[in-house]
Amino acid sequence: MNTPNPPHEVQGSQPPAPIHRQILSLALPALGALIAEPIFVLADSAMVGHLGLHELAGLSLASTILMTVVGLCVFLAYATTAATARKAGAGDRPGAVRDGIDGMWLALLLGLILTAALLAFGSPLARAFNPDPLTLPHALAYLRASAPGIPGMLLVLAATGVLRGLLDTKTPLIVASIGAVANIGANAALIYGLRMGVAGSGLGTALVQTAMGLALATIVGIKARKLGVTLGPRGTGLLASTKSGVPLLIRTAALRLALLATVATATALGPVVLASHQIVNSVWGLTAFALDALAIAAQALVAQGLGASDADRVRSMLRIMVRWGLAAGAVIGIVIAAGAWLIVPLFTSSPEVRAAAVGGLIVIGILMPLAGYVFVLDGVLIGAGDGRFLAWAGILTLVAYLPALWFVSRFAPGGTWGVIWLWIAMAGVFMAARAVVLGLRSRGTAWMRLGI
After folding, report:
1. CA distance 396 to 242
2. Among 5, 222, 260, 426, which is 20 to 30 Å from 362 by CA?
3. What's this protein's family per the entry (predicted)?
4. Measuring CA to CA, which residue among 290, 275, 283 is closest to residue 342?
5. 386: Cα within 13 Å, side-chain hemisphere
C-alpha cells in the first residue's frame, strides 16, 4: 500500500486538467440540486411569512423538528455515495448498485418508523421548546401535515446517494428542479387556494417529496435491471448499510443537536428573534447546501480514487477543492451581506423582523468562507469512509459550541442584537471548532484507506 503525503503539504504543479473537469461536472449539477432542495424551505417561509408573525414562527419551530428527524438520516445519502463510489472505482458496478439498493430499502423502512414516531410524539416535542401560545398551533399543524412525507424524503436521500456514487449528479438535479417548481405550485394552491394555512405548506411539501422519492427509485431500479441486479431487500445488505451508517448517524445527531440548541436559544429570546432566525436559517441552508456541492464532488471522487488505489489523485483533489471551498464561500458571503436588505422583504413585512434578519444575514455573509472550508473537508472524509472519526469530531464540536449558546441565552438582548449574537455563535464559534478538528485530520494520512 502507498504511504500518502500529508494532503495540504504536497508540493509541485497544479492538479491535471481532468481533475478540474471532473469536479466541475459533478459539482455544478449537484449545486443545482442542492439549491433546489432548500427552495422547499424558502418557498414555505416566503408564503407562510405573509400569513403573520406567529405563523412564520410556528413554521420555524416545526420545520426545525422535521428537518432534524430527516437530517439524522442523511447518512443514507452519504454512506450509499461512499460505498457505491468505492466499488465503482474498483470496477464492480453491479456490486455498487446492489449496495445502493440495500440503502434504499433501509431508507423506506426508517421512513415508515419515523413517520409513526413523529405523529405520536410531535406535539410533546414542539411543546418542549416552550413556544409562544399563539405559535404552537401553527407548529403542530405543519408537523401533522408533513409527517407522511418522511418515507419519500429518505428515499430521495438514498437514491441520490446511489446516483452520486455512480458519478451521476445530473439526474438528481432534474428531479429536484421539477420538485421545487411543483412544491411552489402545490403550496400556493393549498395555502391560499384551499385556505389551509400552515398545514397546506406541510402537506404540499410531503406530496412533492413522495413523488420525487418514487421517481428516483424508479430510475435506480432501471439501472439495476440493466446490470442484472435484483431489487429485493437483503438481510445482510440492510445490516451492512446500517453498520456503515451508524457513525455518520452519530456525527449528524451531534450537528442536529447543535441546530436544535440554536433554535431553543432563539425561542427563549422571543418571537421576533425566532421568526428572524427562520429567515436567516433558510438563507444559511441555501448557501450552505450550495457550498456542499463541492463536498458532494469530493465524496464521490475521493471514494472512487481510493477504491482505485490512486492516492496521488486523491491528494490533488483535496488540495484544489479546499481552495474552491474558500473562494466560493467568499463570493457567496459578499452577495448575502450586500443583498441582505433586498432578501429579507421577500419573507416578511414586519419592521422588527426585517431589521433583525438583516443583521443575521450580514453575520453569515462575513463568515461564509469558513463554512466553505468546513463543508469541503467534511465531504472528503465522508467519501473516504472515515465515519468513526467524524462521529467523535461531531461530539467534540458540539461540546465546544454549547457554552457559546449558553452565553447568548444568558446575556444577549432581544431583537436585532439577539439575532446577531446568535449567528456569531452558530456561524462563527461552531464552524471554527469544526474547521480546527477537520483541518487537523485532513493533514494526516489515517483517513486514506486504499482499495475496497
Report:
1. 23
2. 260
3. Belongs to the multi antimicrobial extrusion (MATE) (TC 2.A.66.1) family.
4. 283
5. 26
Average pLDDT over residues 361-384: 93
Task: Give the count of beta carbons closer than 10 Å to the beta carbon of residue 31.
Answer: 22
Residue located via cell numbers 409527517: 147
Distance CA 424, CA 78 (A): 28
Measuring CA to CA, how many Å separate 335 from each of 42, 280, 331? 17, 14, 7
Residues 23, 333: contact at Cβ < 8 Å? no
Could you tell me how many residues make up the chain? Answer: 452
Q: d(Cα 158, Cα 260) in Å, to the nearest integer?
A: 24
Answer for the pair 321, 23: CB distance below 8 angstroms, yes or no: yes
Q: Write out pLDDT tens, residues 226-277.
A: 988 888 887 777 787 788 788 988 998 898 889 889 988 988 888 888 888 8
Instruction: Give the span between the Cα atoms of 110 and 366, in whole angstroms.
Output: 38
Whether residue 373 contacts residue 325, with contact meaning beta carbons closer than 8 Å, is answered with: yes
Please state, in angstroms and rounded to a whole number, the distance separating the CA atoms of residues 274 and 145. 22
